[in-house]
Amino acid sequence: MKFNTVYILFLGVCLIGATSADTDDEDDDVQVEVEDDDEVRVEKPQFVPPTIQKNVHFADSFNKKDEFKSRWTVSQAKKDGAEENLSKYDGKWKVEVPKSSAVEGDLGLVLKSKAKHHAVASKLNKPFKFDGKPLFVQYEVKYQDGIDCGGAYVKLLSADPALDLKQFHDKTPYTIMFGPDKCGLDNKLHFIFRHKNPKTGEIEEKHAKKPSAALDSYFTDKKTHKYSLVINPDNTFEVSVDGSVVNSGSLLEDFSPPVNPPKEIEDPNDKKPEDWDEKEKIPDPDAEKPEDWDENEPEKIVDSEATKPDGWLEDENKLVPDPDAEKPKDWDEEMDGEWEAPLIENPKCSDAPGCGKWEQPMIKNPKYKGKWRPPMIDNPNYQGIWKPRRIPNPNFFEDLDPYKMTPINAVGLELWSMTDEIVFDNFLVTDDKGVAEKWTEQTFQIKSAAEKASSGGRSVMDAISDATRERPWLWALILVVVVLPIVLIIAYCCMSKSEPETLAEAKKTDAVSPDDEKKEESADKEEKTGPGGDNKPNTKKSKASLEATEDDGDDEDEVDAEEEEEEAQEKNSESPRRSPRKRKSRKD
């Protein structure tokens, strides 16, 4: 049992250390004060604008309200194919401190309208060209009131000299669309890139495979989450949330439809021959209907042997008008017709075998065979399922470097949402991993730690959830920590209980054991032959043999023997003698 306790403590310490390792550094940024009345008050950290370094194509933390209008452009376009009152991009945006902000003075871009089209965009400091450097894109989203239906994804608009951000709408060409989207129970994390066919010039959207991780909590916990996308020159990509990778793969293999079309396709001009036989089975042309096969026999017939059950109420209807129903006060017979009480089940029929007219039931007809059909046999002319022949794909091409996408010149949010109060913050577009990491340290890590501190810290379940999301192998450790000790404790308890029960059973019974038999034989031998093996009777018995002899008496006759001895003492009261030793009655 000591081993189990030490084992549990050891594994528990390992688990706690693993779950808390990521938050130790973050929690150091949050100061906690203990007041005189023992109430704990969390002091909000003051917002410090992040430093913008080199190799930054775009960065905005919305730390100044005045800069929003000069840097971002609110669309004045109309959406094609929508009604006049819904076609305008008239959704409101506002730079403000979010509700329940955990960082003092931290501003964000807030979507303020429900059921509206929203569009806002900003030019990059310099266009991003896919010329051999990785692309790092990240930004933060917070659903302050949760989310019912709406997107929070970002569009990286394609570089075009004719790009007018005032006319930014859903058809504006983009290179990448990335970010969360939800409607109903469908939680998505988009990564879509537009690929240009080198032969035809057509643009086609390529959708990444679905993330393997669960996304539900990001839409429901009302906390800030950082969405990051990395596209590498070797055609690999990574999508992460709060630093945890939720999707990764290859631009060549993990998108639908694939970047490269198939080398061969089905000939669209090939047609199936008229005499092509695809029937694998056919009716046997040589089969004949048996002479005794009667197709006129019905499937069911009346059971002539059935009799009406006793107590059948043939004069009672199954349904009767409800006697408790009343005509509504607003019933107008001229408009509604004559009022009739609704029908209910006849209460008299509940205790009877049935009501109404009795008829003999129908039973299966033993002579029924149905319509005769010839048996099916293999078709000797079967040619298989026809497929058109395959020909070389005239539009085939092979793009082995889809990383080289259309250059990016602007960042835009073009959204429809049934939920307002969605916060966007800390946009970053760069080609330097170190810059992205430094930006995260100065923004998201501080904000995330402050939010956890302001909400009272994390519970054990929150810590486990966060840790296992980043390290799935921890589930194995949790399984060992929880399940194995329980099994060992149960096994130990079961084994501990079995031994006392065996001893108790031995005490409760007077059955003679093999050891007792050997002791009795040895005592009898010594009584007859005497000690040392001589033939003299042993007149002296040891205290142990006397006790053994007394214990061999039948417990059930003890009470009767004592009563007989008492009667004998009363008869010989003139010459009393010493009564034999009485054994105490055994307690069960």
Automatic annotation (TrEMBL):
Main location: endoplasmic reticulum
Subcellular locations according to the entry: Endoplasmic reticulum membrane
Keyword Repeat tagged: yes
BP GO terms, sorted: ERAD pathway; protein folding
Segments of skewed composition (Basic residues): 578-588
Bias-annotated ranges (Acidic residues): 548-568
Superkingdom per UniProt: Eukaryota
Key words of the record: Acetylation, Calcium, Chaperone, Disulfide bond, Endoplasmic reticulum, Membrane, Phosphoprotein, Repeat, Signal, Transmembrane, Transmembrane helix
Protein name per the record: Calnexin
Organism: Magallana gigas
